[in-house]
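pinging the channel bc i need a second pair of eyes. not urgent but kinda urgent?? the chain im working w is below, pasted from the shared doc
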Amino acid sequence: MLEKINRNGADRILLNMGYDESSVNKIKTIAGRRYSVTLKRWHIPYDKTAYNAFLALNLPHDIISGTTEGIHKEKVSCHNSVHTGIDDNQSSTSALPTIDIVEATDIAERTDQKSTTVTMSGGSFRVSIPYEQADVKFIKSLYGSYWRQADKLWVMKAVIPNAQALQDRYQVWSEDAFAELLELIRQQSDPIILEMYVPPGEAGKVALRLSGHSADFTFLKRIPQRQYHAKYKRWTVPRDKNILNAIHKHYKAAGAKVINRIPNKDKAVYMKPSESNQAMLQKIVHKVGDVHTATVKKYADTLIAQSYSKNTIRVYMGEFCKFLQDPAMGDINDRTATEVNAYLSRIAETKVSDSQLNQIVSAIKFYYTKVVFCDRVMIDKLQRPRKGRRLPRVLSMSEVQRMLMALDNVKHKCMLYTLYSSGMRCNEIVALTVDDLLWDREQIFVRAAKGKKDRYVQFSVWTRMVMKDYIDAYQPQHWVFEGADKRTNYSSSSIRKVVKKAARKAGITKSVTTHMLRHSYATHIMDHGLDVRFIQTLLGHNDVKTTMIYTHVTNKSLKKIESPLDIMVRNHIKNRNNDIK
């Protein structure tokens, strides 16, 4: 039944009739239609245009007869309908009853307040509505909504549930516009992304992962020799320049975001900008003053010429400059071994570690033997600190296992697996490149390690499995473990934090370091009978004596020795059982 109502001062026609999805879709085509939450009915403007538009829909309905000023009288032949007597030119008392409804929950347009507007900017909806308590409550219920005081409007996340709720309540978009809006939201929230990277352990292949709400795989399926890997939800194709260019061009034209993680041939793009030796030298010269400039420069030039590492140059230069500036030394070229030893004695009293004191001796010795070629007799008299024999601290296998299981982040887990399973040093881990992972040989190539020595280490079965998951998730280009910028390598300090976090989550109270995992690796493989010479090679030790230290930690031989206490208790129990018998 159609009824005339007054809605907030404006005449409207209430469509008081049965609805189905088809009927609602037709009603939504009428300009100026509104839905009342209170009445749970649609209503349209009380004018000839809207009325005729409704009649053109041919929807079954009843009409109450009556006339109203300003609307043309017109017969209607519809199912169960009665002529309304709407007239354009004459006025009379309407036979159509008027229902005057003004409620805060109504969605009708108001003539005395601003209308509801909804715009989309970036990933947010901006909503401007007349102040109504029910509307404010509704807006607050939407995801991510808040009031922006500066703009006097509401802001919320541009997500599909919010868009649907706004459309259901305010009908701010036409059907076609709303469909376009939903498509735009889907594109923003789930865009088409094509990732291209080198898959782990598959030489001559490139991995492709295509995702997004409207991703089209048809083009990929046409490529010869393509393969789909269900576990990692990716494709692999031959590493052919023409094929890759065609894939890139096709999906770029389709509006996809292409993430190309195939390694760059120019390896310089992956290197951190480092301070040159000359720049470092200038800083040191500036600190020591003009008096010692020539000496410091000669010392630095010798270190650089002999290809010492930057870290060694930095340490030696720092310690030598302190020695050079000591007021008690005078001209260092005239010093005797006794005077140098007196300097070392003063340094030792400052409670420096044995290793640092050794570095100081080495830095001074380098000057007299490699820079000025002083008499070696004096150098032989330089006193190094007495060496103690401190055993390496190790973790038990169960403690290591708890640490490995404590981490959920696949990158952090992969770091720990690699550290422990290979016995590598922390700085060797961060220097690993993707090319150093020799999948077919089940080895890891450690390039230019301590002392600029190369070596091969184990690439264990479980480490390879975790490494595959990690590479598929993070897609490293050059460095195995990349930093936040995806170009330079991960820092050693960050790996140390990962190890400490794993130990803490595993409930290990003692201080755990990255080097402790290296010690644990060496000890555990010695426990299981590996020859010390092999262990020396795996660890990259110059001298087997360094490796022999683990013989004092391993419990392989100790397990064979029975404590005299255990023997005594066992004999006591045996004798007591004999007495009872």
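so The first strand starts at residue 2 and ends at 7. and Confidence is low (pLDDT under 50) at residues 67-113. — does that match what u expected or am i reading it wrong
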